[in-house]
# Entry
Amino acid sequence: MILTIARKEFCSLFVIPSTWLILGALQFIFAWFFLARLDAFLQVQSQLAQLANAPGATLAVAAPLFGTIALILMMLIPIFTMRLIAEERRNQTLTLLMSAPVSDIHIVVGKFIGLMLFLLLIITSCILMVLTLAAGTQLDTGLLLTNALGLILLAASYVALGLYISSLTAQPVVAAIGALAIFFGLWLVEISAVDNNNTWRALAPTSHFQSFNIGLLNSTDLIFFLLFCFAFLLLTIRRLHNNRIYS
Amino acid sequence: MLVTAPITLSARNLIRRFGQREVIHGISLELRHGEVLGLLGHNGAGKSTTLQMLTGALLPHSGEVEICGFDLTRQPQNAKARTGFLPETPPLYREMSVNDFLIFAAKLHRVPRAQIADALTETKRRCGLQDSGKKIIGTLSKGYQQRVGIAQAIIHQPEVIILDEPTVGLDPSQIRDIRELIRELGNMHSVILSTHLLGEVESICDRVEIMHHGRLIYGDSSTKMQQYGSQPGFIVTLLAPPALSVLQAIAEVQQVDQLSATQFRILHTVNTNPSAALLTLAAQHGWQAEQLVPLRTRLEDVFMQITQDEKS
# Structure
């Protein structure tokens, strides 16, 4: 049942023209940024070569690129999560799922997986772009893998939070703006914290992404992301259940 | 309607509040296999809320719903797999094609993978959607969207079909088609539909429940409902009528009113019918009987009368 719903969500993204537009535009932005970083790297390469422990192409090109993708995902994901529940509620299609023999868990997890599959596509396309570097240099696979994992976990936590915001309202636009505002708030908490050990800073998913970004697989960060997703998925399931009682 | 047919849906004492306001005050319903039940009521009487509670889209604050022996709150998946629901606004994903949408609906309702193709063809045939399979739902007309909505509700061959105002917004020929379809569905499944069109009840329902301010105030077969509170009688046209008193003197006639020079309204007691006697007399005396029309109360009047009775 989960897969049926996930597949429907995934496929219905591709029948909307704007999805293709966003995919194309994203790829363009990523490629632009990638080439700009590559250009800068090539210019300083001769100087770097004189250093004893010089940063390689992966650290100088790929890591900043992934950092940018993380930022772009933050702005992108609300556009997709707003459709998941808020739009169904507005179009009154949610009744179909509510009266079908599927539980709220199936609905929420199905929608979550459906959107994650789509985001995986975007993330994979970026990784493939970075892999083209392998033609000219040796890549740091470890750094690449932690970055990819970090990006996936970050996307998952954004989707979980966005899904919850989407379940609170019947207006997709409100859901999008609400999710975006919260993502931005969390991001601001992270960048405005002067002290690195600030407790508030620990709330922001982006701050936990930092360690993945520099190639550090920290179990605290891993657990944070998993708990974050779990908590908001659970809240969404509760919200859908309450929907049957109160609305 | 067979009284021995198994009960497919039973609701007991459903109560539903919105905030502090109680909108459904203890509704109990029973539906048997092969029966079409019409839920009749004014706008805002609570029809849609009741139907949503029967499908599990809305939970009642108290009371139970049982579908084919499965309790809707304790075994929701088993119960819901046996119902098909068409809400007031058909729940259609406008960007999907008809085929994709119906396949999704079939999978959602646990139709085995191997049977999906057959179910799809059969359902499209029943709903007259054979040529629309590849069309995008958003581009279909209102009538066809309604058909897709019904197709979605019946693709998994549910025991109980729940339709919320299925013919609203359709043109007369579409209404006729959909009524025929519902009648056909009623032979093999149980159907419960809400409506405020009385003609619909007259033409397709076996049984009627009237809802008023969140209560069921009247329930009976639809033929009995038409006779509610009216006195039996007929209108007779006699081209060469006798004096009024002659007609009045016929046995079992209670009252005669002259409507025009040749037309008379004759009321009689409930279990008798003096029309045969009258026609024999007319033939004997050359009254030239032309027409004899039984009095039929309009369902609108009956409905108004029942809801009025409730108020007073």
Remarks:
- Chain B has a mean pLDDT of 85.
- Chain B is about 35% helix and 30% strand.
